[in-house]
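B., you asked whether I could sanity-check this one before it goes into the benchmark set. Here's the sequence:
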Amino acid sequence: MTEVMDVIQDLKNENFGHVDIIDFIADDMSKEIIDEKELIKATTINFLSSMMPHPINNNVAGATTTGKTKMIMGVIKYFPHERFEIYESISPQALRYGADKWFDKENDEDVTEVLVKLKDELKFAQKDDKPAINKNITEFEGKYCKCKDFENKCLIFLEDPGLGVLKQLRSLLEHDDHYLHSISVHESKTIQLNTRG
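And here's what the prediction gave me:
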């Protein structure tokens, strides 16, 4: 929420006075997108909710070439880009390749930095020290889960993601406080996906 509050403060500093960010975005976008003010407001509220403890889900549906994507991408420009995961089309398997963090599920703690330090240590280690560091890395990867962290993010599917993707993201879309775990095999390598929302 602090990023949005910073934007509001910047607007106030520019002599905008008291600014309601929802109305501001709707009014500003209505200059280029006609007759969609309420949809713009609903989308803005949805994006703002991703920064709150209890976010909401929103589905913008309509016929082809009615401006859905233009409106959504227009609202996005008012927010920090790292808040969004945008998918044009996606398969359930594609989600598995974006896991980028390591989590201690028991303590709900990001432990990615620990692995980064171990790998850095391995790069500069003496030959005799490398087996012990490799063992520590293997133990680390066995103890913690690799995770795609969607916390405080908006997932935007520009095309229908399909039932398979939605099933994989069920825990996330229901805003559960637990991890959704799934396993697949790709090119004889087991891949585990953990998502948290």
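One thing to flag: DSSP finds nine helices and seven strands in the chain. Otherwise nothing jumped out at me.
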